[in-house]
Amino acid sequence: MDLSKENAVLAVEVLDLLFRATRHIQQEYEMKLESLSLPFQLSGPRLRLLLVVWRAEKIRMNELASKLGVKPRTVTELVDALERDGVLHRTPDPNDRRATLLHLTEEALNQISRVRSVQMQISDEILQKFSAEQRTQLHALLSKIFEGMEFDFVY
Amino acid sequence: MDLSKENAVLAVEVLDLLFRATRHIQQEYEMKLESLSLPFQLSGPRLRLLLVVWRAEKIRMNELASKLGVKPRTVTELVDALERDGVLHRTPDPNDRRATLLHLTEEALNQISRVRSVQMQISDEILQKFSAEQRTQLHALLSKIFEGMEFDFVY
DNA sequence: TATTGTTATACTCTATAACTATA
DNA sequence: TATAGTTATAGAGTATAACAATA
Asked: For chain C, which bases have at least one atom within 7 A of a protein Cβ?
């Protein structure tokens, strides 16, 4: 009997678990975000977009699409909705009149710290049983998945 | 200066990374699944449903919805599509004439081993840089997220 | 009266293809 | 000729509310 494989964890089992954990956490996030009563709707994809714009301060729709890993058409759709809700606005790029730059509105900037703080609070709750060392370990192991990848980090 | 927190990894950073890893892996999965040329369409949600039915052999739509963490109406929608594609079929539950039992078709049973083997192959590729010990570690850390949760495992 | 699943309807995310304006 | 973003259109996944059949 090959004892070395007796208790081995299959790669596919690890990734199944990864998916389940992600779904679980996403559901927690969405529940808590709803209860925040923000002056605008914030789904997962919208928040993801928002945070990329926030980190960049200003960004082309173009570049945003590639950072998010979606098509430009999808960004148009999301931006339409967010602009309607007063979360961000389009301005023409002075350097290239084909391009459009996105900025967050004051309102969004005001709310975003609430969102981030709820994110941090939920995250702490979910990982409450983890020691600092275990958090670091989990972070290191997840980073390892991206090891040796050339392309820009996708959010 | 508080050196103990100097290099600490924030919980929110760990979960951000978790999300990014999951998105990345999901994209790999979907790409490879497409190239399998199955006789039916298999998106993430459809595959998830399929695998739950497969593990259960037969299952009520009801119970399926709760295992998947979606509403019954959503299961109706998915099952309609999968039945149209000849992947599964509805039969009345003899014990409760309100209920409907789902079974996979022969065709689905024949294809599912191909799907599983591709899943395992992709998983091995993604975790190729991981030692057996690291896989076990990652599995243990992810399990810890669910620690002390009462409810049934959600897929 | 409560539960199972459906019809009717709608919203969000995503995409492809054809087009406009600019480079 | 190529790029940035849009209009037009479509499909998948998800949901709520009202309902029919059954328990």
From this structure: 3-8, 12-17, 21-23
